[in-house]
Amino acid sequence: MGMKGKAIEIVGFTKKFGDFTAVDNLSLDIYENEIFGLLGPNGSGKTTTLLTIATVYKPTSGDIYVFGHSASREDYEVRKLVGIAFQEPKAMWIDKPIDLLNWHARVVGYSGDEAKRVVREVMELLGLWEHRNKYFYQLSGGTRKKVELAKVLIQKPRVAILDEPTAQVDVLSKHALWDVIKKLRDEGTTILIATNDMFEAERVCERIAIIYKGRLRALGTIEELKDSIPRGDVIEIQFDGLLPESLRSELEAYGRFELRSNALTIYVEKGEEKVIDIVDLLKGGGVRVKKIMVKEPSLDDVFTYLTGAKLREE
Amino acid sequence: MGSLRTLLVIALWDLMKLKNQKVFIAMRFAWFTIQILVFARAVSYIVSQVVLQYTGGVEYYYFYILGVYTTLLYSTSIARGYMIADEFDDGIVEYHLSLPIRRNLLAVGRVLGSSISTIIFTIPMMLVVYYVLGVCNVVIVLVSLLSAFVFSMGIVSFVILIVFSMKSTDLTDIVVGAIDSLLVRLSTVFYPLPVIAATGIASYYVAAVLNPISHASDFLRILVFPEYHLIAPYGPVALILYITGFSMGLLILAIEYYEKRLEAGGWR
Amino acid sequence: MSVRISGFIREAYVVSLRDLRRFWQNIYWLAGQVAMNIADLVIFGLIFRGLVNPQLIPDYIRFITPGVLCLSIFISAFTIGREVGVELRREVTHYLVSLPISRSALVAGRILGGVLRGFIYQSGFIILAVLIMGSPTTEKWVLTITASTLLAATMSSLSITVSTVTRDFNLQAAIRSLVYFMFFFVSNVFYPEKALQARLGSAAPIAYYSPVSMTVSIYRYCFGYLQSVDLFFNLTGLTAWCLISILLAYRLYIRNLTR
Fold first, then answer.
1. Does the interface predicted TM-score (ipTM) exceed 0.90?
2. pTM score, two decimals?
3. Which of residues 187-216 of B touch A (CB under 8 A)?
4. Which H or E run contains A12?
5. Least CA distance to A160: which residue of chain B?
């Protein structure tokens, strides 16, 4: 990561709406060509941050730089680099996907014929072509989200902002869209995804920031975040016979543990490293180990630990 | 992307919407035709011939239908502005503000697009009016189209400014609704200025004289019936300069607003 | 049976309350509309009155007041259709048809909502009409209220019908506007029958059979502008309009909501 330049630099960014502080002194860097996840429950400030990067909002204080351009002072330069797929699809009921996307292609710089070609390509890729002439109100929620994503795929910006890109999308399509997002990154786009879908974050994002009530609570790779929970890993060991009393005090040195008949559950840090020592300890004590399982904490667990709140809270 | 091309592409946004409104245009045309052929004819039937002295000799029916056409131009421009307010509600302003285009071009493009849409929308109605009036002079038709376009730009800019300042569809409804109703009533679209003067209410007369809708309708009347010049307070050049000044002034304010003060949010 | 009827009335009443509440929520719009209609009356009185041929209409203010009275109830009752259309668009109708109430109570409630809106909106204009034209006798008050009820139910039902006739919302709005303006222009609200005969010729009866014209004629009679009127024709006609409109609204609203 260190070798890559910064695509987005958020420096002490605060956004207030009247008396309400939506984002409070947020600072973080997003590197070129990474898929970065912004996690947080509804109302945590994710969308406000994304919209300010897209220059739709202006920072109250601090600033955001996209490839060195200030969002507050060089908004036009920033917009030339950024494409955004909004959380709520931006269309009126009377609009048709083909018209919206053709116009979008034209406004981001394609000529008439090029626009038609690229729009068709992207619509076919996302399975939208058959819906091209339907009114927006006739489309399902998932299809509307795909139209929104199509705008970014047409634009191929240097920074793509995707606000909950697969919300309302069915499971099969989600997997296809994740592949499309990764392909976009492979083609050179830096991707910033806001989501509260843990599976999506784990599956797609390389680094993650967790924000809650407008403040940054954690930042790092998924592994780093999981490791940040003290004794967050769980080692489950099944064995034959009884656990000798003498091993109990030695096991406590690794972390809290629970014993139920022939099953031992130990809460540790970096479980994948410690499991070997623990198994050796048991074997040394004459215990015959039958089955070993190491479980990492989920991102939900990470979030709960960091904020004391549930990620999916409304 | 060149500025002119950008402007045209932005204007296409509004034209694209118009494309999906063919049936609505047809219906609006039908109701306008009923208004011209039934309502206007019946109303002019009950008007006494005394009115001719106030209209410079122009039949009240002809006077009236040019007024109705002006109010149509006005209300269609207002409706385009309302569409922008609806877009605010649907969050489309966020999308537009995120596009890789300059804000001043976005402002001009939206005003242009809305005004062109207004003109296209009202062309069938204009043709009915000119058919009824027996106008077949191409120059008159073109000049009236141009003046309608300039007038529409002013009204659209005006509504955009209100929509952006209010950031609330409810407030916009109330404010535009009130101004809309007042402007039409305090104008010369349905009553000639000498009749308004005869009421003796100075503020009513001043409002009608300053009202851009009065200027737009009187300009069209002078264009078609030069004798109307006799009772109009200003000549055609002054009238068109007034409309142009009104529209350009509001357009500049709209651009200024887009560039300096507009950001999304705050209307919910 | 009586239990079922009282259940029906209660359900319809509850549905109508929803539409009534929305009407009050637009209080500024309402105030604006009332102000503008009053302004129209003032302008008619100040200006148009002087332009009208006195041999045709001796006093235009007294002529137009019952017309404005009729427009007030027509316009407000008709507003229900726009909301029905918006609900279809936003699929709120799915919620409505899922409610534990009978379909007929749902339709009746919507129509009743329109009627109540009409009466609320018209009340101010009734006072104005009394101030301008004097109060009708008791019998004529009964007649006025009957005509208002029939017209409000007709317009409420018609607006619901045209709003559900198609799922193409564009077309829906266009048809609603066309119906609205047909009634608005092709009637005797603004001009007497003589003007309609002169301008429409053999097509003039279209205006006579309009529910708006029938109501205006009854109002003009009740408020003393006309000394006599064909009450049988106007009341029977209005009743027929009302029954057919309600039947249409019932059939089309339910069919389009549940298909």
1. no
2. 0.80
3. none
4. strand A6-17
5. B98
